[in-house]
Amino acid sequence: MAYEKCTKIDLSWIAGIFEGEGSICVYKGAGEKTKYVRLFFFNNDITMLEEVQRLIGGHLHIRTHKRKDEWAESHQLQLGKKEDIILFKNYVVPYFRTKYKKEQFEKAIELANKNGGEY
For 18-36, what is each residue's pLDDT tens digit? Predict the structure, then answer.
């Protein structure tokens, strides 16, 4: 990953985007006990998500998320590999400004680690 090449400004920018537009989700496969953490960035500006992807990787989904006709298309960038989550935790989370998002991140990791799960 390119985290090591990111400047403090890059990492702060990514943290701010995630705090405002990001989601942390814990998934469990059907019939499985193992849980997985996924990080999502959502935004209408695909060029911004492409820049985040260029800096830290992830999988950019070019999908239309439109609940109403008058709403703009929304796109998502997903981080789901264990190593991506660990790198994000080590490099980006320290730049979070909100206590809520830090706690949400830690709770997701803790939940995923229960019953032999992983993040």
Answer: 999 999 998 877 777 778 8
Residues 6+ apart with CB under 8 A from 43: 17, 21, 49, 74, 75
Q: What is the DSSP letter of 30?
A: T
Instruction: Kindly report the pTM of this predicted structure.
Output: 0.84
Q: Return the SS3 of 113.
A: helix
Second CATH level (architecture) for the domain 3-116: Roll (3.10)
DSSP, residue by residue, 39-93: EEEEES-HHHHHHHHHHH--EEE-----SSTTSPP-EEEEE-SHHHHHHHHHHTG
How far is the CA of 63 from the CAs of 26, 45, 46, 94, 107, in angstroms? 21, 12, 10, 30, 28
Phi then psi for residue 61, to 5 deg, are -95, 120
pLDDT tens digits, one per residue of 90-115: 999 999 999 999 999 999 888 877 75
Q: Which residue has the tokens 């950019």?
A: 60
